[in-house]
Amino acid sequence: MGSIEPPTPLTTLLTSLVPSRPDLTTSILPSLLTALSTIASSLRTAQNVSPTSTTNTFGDAQLNVDILAESALRAALSQCPSAHTASSEEDPIERPIHDDAANHTTSNSETYTIAFDPLDGSSIIAPNWTVGTIIGIWDGPTALNAPPRENQVAAVLGVYGPRTTAIIAIRFHQSQEEGQVIELGLTDSGGWEIIRPLVHFLPSDSESETEPKYFAPANLRAASEDPRYMRLVTNYIEKRYTLRYSGGLVPDVVHALVKGQGVYLSPVTASSKAKLRRLYELCPLALVVECAGGRAVDPTDGRDVLDRPVGGCDERGGLVCGTPEEVEFAMGVLLGEK
Amino acid sequence: MGSIEPPTPLTTLLTSLVPSRPDLTTSILPSLLTALSTIASSLRTAQNVSPTSTTNTFGDAQLNVDILAESALRAALSQCPSAHTASSEEDPIERPIHDDAANHTTSNSETYTIAFDPLDGSSIIAPNWTVGTIIGIWDGPTALNAPPRENQVAAVLGVYGPRTTAIIAIRFHQSQEEGQVIELGLTDSGGWEIIRPLVHFLPSDSESETEPKYFAPANLRAASEDPRYMRLVTNYIEKRYTLRYSGGLVPDVVHALVKGQGVYLSPVTASSKAKLRRLYELCPLALVVECAGGRAVDPTDGRDVLDRPVGGCDERGGLVCGTPEEVEFAMGVLLGEK
């Protein structure tokens, strides 16, 4: 069975959450975590990513780190018999992982498609800000045209900062919104330890007036042409919310998860097009946010990101996510209802 | 002479810049860089900093990392005979570094006071965002009541992100604004290599309309009571500037340095008091920004940060810094002249 790992506290926890998916919990997730630690190592010594001040000439060095991340993930998946299909933001086409794909499909009761953004946050790599990896794991030989809430069974985020952390979100059962989010940390010896077995947004009644509230307004240029977005931003300022916006999707969403509250906004307007990829960015992040008790919606109509199948690998959208209360308030303003 | 290091490309470069300061370039700066790599190691395995969502209960774990950083810097300085006095944001009192301080003062032609913020960015350590160390190096046995532009001869920033980088700013001569900023990276083998020997803001005529321009509005809550700050922020949005604001002083200023342009704003209003410490934060950052060809001013009157002596270890202020053009524009709006 290739790279099945010996039981660790993590695999024991994962297996207890979804006992019906042994390949996911003992092969695919451990292999992906190994890839994240490889990516962290690559980044730590990739000093040549920083020598330039323009994004244009910055291309080559940047590309090297992206390719290293892409290779680490594909190498990890090639060790997993039940990993059938892969596609990536760097190569947005679904391809079989194994040459003898037909055999793998029939010989395993579990069959997965893995879609990933190997290194998100290219614009903030040069200044040495935290960046991340985003991975969605789907049931079956394709992620396309399938109901995301049912078929996307797990998501993994890699967070490369002063230390290396990871977030795993896993659904307990198909067709349900329940699930669990676990925070992991990479240890000195290269293993992953559980930092928090249960990451969850704080209940709204625990919010006090003295605790800071956070907002992360992405694509803020859009506020110049969308009076509702501008009104929403000035509203947060007037209510004395604390601004935190790194421009990296993973650190920005993880900030809200770790603080237990917050809202991330990436609206779409006529001239500020939707930029976030539904397959590689929005669906995995939405799974994490929902499993932590939050909401992730399409800002154009307020529908849950996971309500709508992904029609193609390059399909894009906007995002509003965070605690249910914050998302409801933001969407009320953005849709002109408040 | 204690911990004088064998010549490296870095010490060779530093010595060529300030040949009259051998202790600074071969003892103090290398020792401080060693401390930064120790802090980076401590942070990398400090997984227990993230388990809580509130800043109050977060205190203890946080304190451990702060103390480790403080200890690493003090241990490094104890190896440097010409390092006479130290004070830190964690212990804001100037104290002699060596027990036999009188002897050290008289036996060395160089005598330095080192003031540092060992770990800046406590609120963003839990979500694993980039944080930093800030160090100012002053001529003589005290940094207080001395002219900063003349007496603060060097500054060091440690940047702990996906990789570990450092910024060194050094004045060529006292009483001049000239100096040089060098970017370093920590290598796999634990040494520091020169990433960019000359970090400098881009000349204003190189800015094109197609390149993104950046702004980092700290203390944004102040805009709720200061119409000028609100007007400045909406002006950036309307001019389609790109927002990047991590809330960490080091990563936010380093972002502008690496991109070659940008503006950082931390105004002061009646109810949003000045928060940044002049000795541990503002003066070292101002030295870096000036040596890179930028400006760093007090937002209350537009005077250069380095024009005004530091009267006490806990003195605080606001900050506007970045390219000269951006600082001039921002101050025009904040002082009501535009």
Automatic annotation (TrEMBL), chains A, B:
<feature type="domain" description="Fructose-1-6-bisphosphatase class I N-terminal">
    <location>
        <begin position="26"/>
        <end position="170"/>
    </location>
</feature>
<dbReference type="Pfam" id="PF18913">
    <property type="entry name" value="FBPase_C"/>
</dbReference>
<dbReference type="GO" id="GO:0005737">
    <property type="term" value="C:cytoplasm"/>
</dbReference>
<dbReference type="InterPro" id="IPR023079">
    <property type="entry name" value="SBPase"/>
</dbReference>
<dbReference type="InterPro" id="IPR033391">
    <property type="entry name" value="FBPase_N"/>
</dbReference>
<dbReference type="GO" id="GO:0006094">
    <property type="term" value="P:gluconeogenesis"/>
</dbReference>
<dbReference type="GO" id="GO:0046872">
    <property type="term" value="F:metal ion binding"/>
</dbReference>
<feature type="domain" description="Fructose-1-6-bisphosphatase class 1 C-terminal">
    <location>
        <begin position="211"/>
        <end position="329"/>
    </location>
</feature>
<dbReference type="InterPro" id="IPR000146">
    <property type="entry name" value="FBPase_class-1"/>
</dbReference>
<dbReference type="GO" id="GO:0042132">
    <property type="term" value="F:fructose 1,6-bisphosphate 1-phosphatase activity"/>
</dbReference>
<dbReference type="GO" id="GO:0006000">
    <property type="term" value="P:fructose metabolic process"/>
</dbReference>
<protein>
    <submittedName>
        <fullName>Fructose-1,6-bisphosphatase</fullName>
    </submittedName>
</protein>
<dbReference type="GO" id="GO:0005986">
    <property type="term" value="P:sucrose biosynthetic process"/>
</dbReference>
<dbReference type="GO" id="GO:0030388">
    <property type="term" value="P:fructose 1,6-bisphosphate metabolic process"/>
</dbReference>
<keyword id="KW-0479">Metal-binding</keyword>
<dbReference type="InterPro" id="IPR020548">
    <property type="entry name" value="Fructose_bisphosphatase_AS"/>
</dbReference>
<keyword id="KW-0378">Hydrolase</keyword>
<dbReference type="Pfam" id="PF00316">
    <property type="entry name" value="FBPase"/>
</dbReference>
<dbReference type="GO" id="GO:0006002">
    <property type="term" value="P:fructose 6-phosphate metabolic process"/>
</dbReference>
<keyword id="KW-0119">Carbohydrate metabolism</keyword>
<feature type="compositionally biased region" description="Basic and acidic residues">
    <location>
        <begin position="93"/>
        <end position="102"/>
    </location>
</feature>
<feature type="region of interest" description="Disordered">
    <location>
        <begin position="81"/>
        <end position="106"/>
    </location>
</feature>
<keyword id="KW-0460">Magnesium</keyword>
<comment type="similarity">
    <text>Belongs to the FBPase class 1 family.</text>
</comment>
<comment type="pathway">
    <text>Carbohydrate biosynthesis; Calvin cycle.</text>
</comment>
<dbReference type="InterPro" id="IPR044015">
    <property type="entry name" value="FBPase_C_dom"/>
</dbReference>
